[in-house]
Amino acid sequence: MKNFPTDIEIAQDATLIHIKEIANKINIAADDLEYYGKYKSKLPLYLQKENPQGKLILVTAMSPTKYGEGKTTMTIGLTDGLNTIGEKAIAVLREPSLGPVFGLKGGAAGGGYAQVIPMEDINLHFTGDFSAIEKANNLLAAVIDNNLQNPKASLNLDPKSIAWKRVMDMNDRSLRQIIIGVGGKANGTMREDGFNITPASEVMAILCLSKDLEDLKNRLGNIFVGKTLEGKAIFARDLKVVGAMAVLLKDALKPNLVQTLEGNPAILHGGPFASIAQGTNSVIATKMGLSLGDYVVTEAGFGADLGAEKFFHIKCGQSGLKPDAVVIVATIRAIKHHSGLSENELKTPNVLAVEKGFCNLEKHIENIQKFGINPVVCINSFPDDSNDEYDKLKELCLTKGVNAILNTSFVDGGKGSVALAQKVVDEINNGENHYKPLYKASDSIEHKIKTIATEIYGADGVEFSTKSRTQLKMINDLGFNDFSICMAKTPASFSDNEKLIGRPTNFTITVREFEIASGAGFIIPLLGDVMRMPGLPSVPNAERIDIDNNGKISGLS
Hints:
Structural class: alpha/beta
Radius of gyration: 23 Å
Number of helices: 18
């Protein structure tokens, strides 16, 4: 694999099919497409059915490492694999954020010969959805500050109570906590403020959870802004800006159709992070895929303790969707990482390390089984792996009652995922999966948090800071106690301490503070030192990206 081409070289060498031909494969008429050039288009909302008959396959993963486990690659590979064995499958994915593209993680269009294309467009501005979400979010922020400044229309908002932050789709730690309105009254009311990254915007969550434009507007109106000086709750609808926000989002609400390298349909829509948001693509896109194909392969961000848990409790809880199968992506190197090996030891075959590091994957398997689903483990193959390591991992998975299937779609495309595709179809046809959530909407906020912490993370309990307890009382007083929980924590560990790898025990999690997403219908506990605006690494990906005089991009991954 020394001369194996880069992701962008593979993507640029591909022959793209006109998007109307991709649409035709899933019985979408050319006149139904809203074209963004030849190779991408918007899809009208009426293509989704309320009760679609397709089968839903969720792809999740073990706790991630800095080396990358290839969950999106495996999702695309599985979609191509299903089509290779004659099934009508559609990938339904999130859109990439510019934060990781220019930061550390890179893009989110897959890798090797399991990618969605046009790769450069998808990883950059695409069809403008993120820009629309950002603008709608920041319009509300501007109107809030304008209301503080305008005595004639003032809602008498308490500036210290304002809970709404601005957003930007870029990693920039300097914007986490700022002072605005500096320079006198003409520049607005001076107060503390801050930025989240766009995928963490409540507007992103609302777009991903809405079923139509009317539902979108209702949810936008329910956004909690803050309180008056008299203690009355103020919502976005009180600022009379919901219609304008919806106008900005009218096109962003429509899913985007693209293609895999093998010419299979892929729907991309929404892009929340699972570590700091709900981490799954839109309900509309998923239902549309299930209306147009026999199988939808979708993913939830980071490890199953974050993305899958939120997929089940938030997305499924609010939409009525139910997964028919779950795939957990694992790599030998990630398992060896969770055994405690250093980076320079990961390339050396070590069966004992696989045995020791299996504890992390084991916990994720057990967690999925708690939801009534027996997962399939997908082993993403790498050149440094050994057959003895594969055999040991398969043997260990069998002790938990699950099958582990080797996947080579990074190198071989769809044919490298045929065995996995067939196994997933068999699991669905067996009809033995019966999804059930771990908590009810009527449970208290404290109970829901404790359930996730103890059942999913394996914690002994939950501690609440003084600030979070004050906020928790306000959440209950506002009547938000029936909302779902959207934990924000490090993805690197089951705990809220990224250094506790493997399967940590004898720990508690600490809720530092809460953010409220009343329009989206969930509460966000911030655990440990997690931030909802990431920072750039010391050497960001942006330093490697360039474009030549002919418009050819390099360095994008």
